[in-house]
Design brief:
membrane, transmembrane, 2 domains, iron, metal ion binding, 5 strands, about 140 residues, Cyt_B5_heme-BS, alpha+beta, Flavocytochrome B2, Chain A, domain 1, 6 helices
Amino acid sequence: MGASRVFQLFQVAPHNTKRDAWLVINGRVLDVTRFLEDHPGGSEVLMESVGKDATAGFDAVGHSKAAAEIMAKYQVGVLQGFEDKHSALDAKEKSEGKVYEMTGRVIKEAPGRKRLWLIDLFVPSAVAVLAFWYRCSGSLAEV
């Protein structure tokens, strides 16, 4: 995007239809009209936020860096007076040498889960052995 146009939120508000859908995320004014049908969560998700600041919803979902890159294609301007708190914190952390980058999500198993497989194996096996013993002991008693 070239020179950024500066908008106020009241200028974004009228763009709230499927034919003209704008929203604000992290101070960026985005025209998502062409992206509505391509959005992985469906157009309804975006339509709930058009004409408004959708930053909280965007951040709550935990979008990837790829999503932020896609957003850049739809940027038509910036929100007047917006101060990005995250970039101010990032700049401070970088100047202090604290740089953290999340490259993926890690799902850790609960600590006790590794021991549970023994129970998962032992209980059905014990039940099967007892059932077999019961059936066999009944037929042996008849002999």
